Amino acid sequence: MPEILQFGPLMIKLDWLLMGFSGMVGYYVLQKLIKNSPFYDRPILDKLFNSFIIVFFVWKFSPLLFSPSILWSNPYRLITMIGSSTGLWIGVTVAVFYMTISIRRLKVPAFFIGDLLAIGTITSVLVYSLIGWQYGSATSLPWGISIESPQFKYHPINVYMLFITVPMLIYLWRQRSKVGSGNIVVLFLTYFGAGLMLVSLFKPKAIFLLGLSGQQIVYLLMMAAGFISSMFLNRLKHHEQTSISERDEDQHDAAWVLSSDPGNAVADQIRSENSSKENRTIFSD
Prior knowledge:
Number of strands: 4
Number of helices: 11
């Protein structure tokens, strides 16, 4: 299968088309989840789509940040140039800032957005792993796949990804009724990050920091974020349970005080005596 598709003078990488199709499937899943949620009437998907557009365009035109002379020296490069990794991180930062403001205005819980993105991302990764081959480092294992020469085999990264994404998507989809609780995004960050870290061991890598590649550092940050989010959720649940217990105790104490108040007993006695007098008056009549 060719890596680049050409339509006249226009060329596009096949990998981009596969990612676009996978993203559309993930978008469809998000539509279903939001439709069955209490926030179905809010433009959540529009904000998420805008965030994706922000990331894409900032990444695409990030070379202009460092070489603005491209605009007047060779404007045709604006169509053909590819963004940098620095531009990708800038785009992600701007998109996160945009989404933070948007969900506050929409009054949607952040954990609800996180749970949605977790399921949508797992779905997209699963579809992408199903329809496109990904090659890792060289291997002599019998399940290695060949590109051209059968003498050289490579780890089938997309198959390894399927072993991670399929069981996780099945589990998360069964938990879809709990979207908004935060448990889904915690599982996604912790266990999917660990799975990606494991798969990265079978990829050729360029050392970025402390013997780790840039992707591996991202996976470690995912696991750390999942651990911190789990601690925050546990504290939040403990606080809610404590508040409920204190409220129940206050209500119980208030009811006990009312029932044990001597004034209430006297009032009850007066009411009973007045009631007896009224009954005797009625019978005497």
